[in-house]
Amino acid sequence: MNRFTADRLLLFGATGDLAGRMLLPSLCALDAEELLDPALEIVCTARSEFSDQEFRNLARESLEHFLPADRRGGMATFLNRLTYQPLDASTPEGFDDLAQKVGTPERGLAIFLSTAPSLFEPTIRGLKHSGLAGDRTRIGLEKPLGTDLASSCVINDAVAGAFPERRIFRIDHYLGKETVQNLLALRFANVMFEPLWNSTHIEHVQITVAETVGLEGRVGFYDDAGALRDMVQNHMLQLLALVAMEPPVSYEAMAVRDEKVKVLRSLRAVNAAETVTGQYRAGAIGGQAVPGYDEELGKPSDTETFVAIKAHIDNWRWNGVPFYLRTGKRLPERTTEIIVHFRPVPHSIFSGRGARAEPNKLVIGIQPEENISLSLMAKVPGLDRDGIRLRPVPLDIAMDDAFAGPQRRSAYERLLLDLIEGDQTLFVRRDEVEAQWAWVDAIRAAWEEQGLAPKAYTAGSWGPSASIALAERDGVTWHE
Question: Where in the chain is the domain with CATH 3.30.360.10?
């Protein structure tokens, strides 16, 4: 019953930044390629007072700015799908008018909730009161889902009061990225990797999410959140779970999410000495001078813009294997990548001839480029009279080159289509969210107990020097 294809999409926060940059362009691109059901009607709502035509004009501006010209085919047809209903979601008044605008779907209603967390509860109450939370309705929730475990539970309880778990789609857009899903294909569709994917053969794993930007208009949200809540609690822990999970019995939502939550519940509590926090100061990015965090914010703050963590998973497969997590703003380059460092060969037959064998390394690039690279040792050509020389040679798979035919999809294209069609595989379940919050809350509690303040680092660097020491005391060097 959950897998009906909705013929109504209700988009909250339709005048916001996410809708303009991602949601409307993604829907338009899907429509241009006839991937949206012809019967689908899209009702948009926000607080601003617009007529249908005024909102379509606003949407057209967003599409022309954010959607490549070669993907705008049929834009006029897409705009005609859009209608608009003003709504102040903080009060119950107006939801009946919204319900009238939505009408009665023949098959079902999909709701995408992209609003401030403070509006989640009144919005759910309004949906329930107006009859928009019926048995044929599913709801997608954009992060942040709370600021800690307690507030997350409040939000989840409110949503659960109107929607059962099978109709709740919690969004982490990293799960919609092609290479993130390719991580599962790499592990579970190739016989050579899974037998090696354990503590016997893997020495450590690194996960880096680096940004070059600063606050970029997110002043209020970010200073209350910080890097740990903004990036580690959701994106990075989801990546870690996909790297570390056991093979699911099938590629179905229940099976995949069951295995992810087992990993999240196996995370060892982190002590303060296994973390480093930082806050950027004035520096340069790409040759351009940029201000420090306190200057951008306009006041002193103890919010971290960088965090590095040494994590452990206490289970059979990963015993003794550290997972090094690192994320920050105003770093030298924008990159998201997973690096799997294999153990060295137990005995090198070439050492007597002067050759040095380096451990194999698997690099999974997620952004800005989606690619997979495996470094293998190879002999350097020559007569070897002065000794054998070995050198790591990368085997690269660039997704754009490997799959030149199929259209590349943005994360939100995939996730919006899955919401409309009812596939929960790439969405996050409540027990996952709460396991993530429990782990992150314990880290913050340790910081507060120790009275730790973020260490300053220069914009354009790779964070505080203490983060280098965090890895190097184990003989590990961050991949850069």
Answer: 175-409+429-472
User: Which residues have a Cβ under 8 Å from the Cβ of 444 and sit 6 or more positions away?
Assistant: 148, 228
Query: What is the DSSP annotation of 327-338?
Result: EESS-SS-EEEE
What is the per-residue pLDDT for 1? 43
Which residues of the chain are in CATH 3.40.50.720 domains? Answer: 8-171
The strand ranges marked E within 229-369 are: 275-281, 283-285, 288-290, 306-312, 322-328, 335-342, 361-367
Cis peptide upstream of residue 122 (ω within 30 degrees of 0): no
Contacts of 297-304 with C-beta under 8 Å, sequence gap 24+, read 297/215, 297/219, 297/223, 301/223, 302/453, 302/454, 303/222, 303/223, 303/224, 303/225, 303/226, 303/279, 303/454, 304/226, 304/227, 304/228, 304/277, 304/278, 304/279, 304/454
- Total Cβ atoms within 10 A of residue 48: 14
Is the backbone of residue 296 left (phi > 0), alpha (psi -120 to 50) or beta?
A: alpha
Q: Is 174 exposed, middle or buried (0-12, 13-18, 19+ CB in 10 A)?
A: buried
User: From the CA atom positions of the chain, what is the Rg in Å?
Assistant: 24
Assess if CATH 2.70.98.60 describes domain 175-409+429-472: no
Three-state secondary structure call for residue 190: coil
Active-site residue among 173, 235, 312, 347?
A: 235
Rounded Cα gap, residues 377 and 360, in angstroms: 7
Q: Answer whether 0.90 is exceeded by the pTM.
A: yes
Q: Are 147 and 228 in contact (CB under 8 A)?
A: no
Going 302 to 305 to 309 to 315, the CA torsion angle's sign is: positive
Model confidence over 368-394: pLDDT tens digits? 888 889 998 787 887 776 778 787 888
pLDDT of 77 over the 50 cut: yes
Phi-psi region of 51 (alpha: psi -120 to 50; beta: other; left: phi over 0): beta
The H or E element containing residue 84 is strand 82-86
Residue-wise pLDDT for 28-39, tens only, equals 999 998 999 999
DSSP 192: T
Two structure tokens written together for 329:
């703003």
E strand spans, 168-282 = 168-171, 202-210, 275-281
Q: pLDDT digits over 302-313, tens only?
A: 999 999 999 999
Q: Which fold has domain 8-171?
A: Rossmann fold (3.40.50)
Per-residue pLDDT at 218 exceeds 80: no
Does residue 235 have an active-site annotation?
A: yes
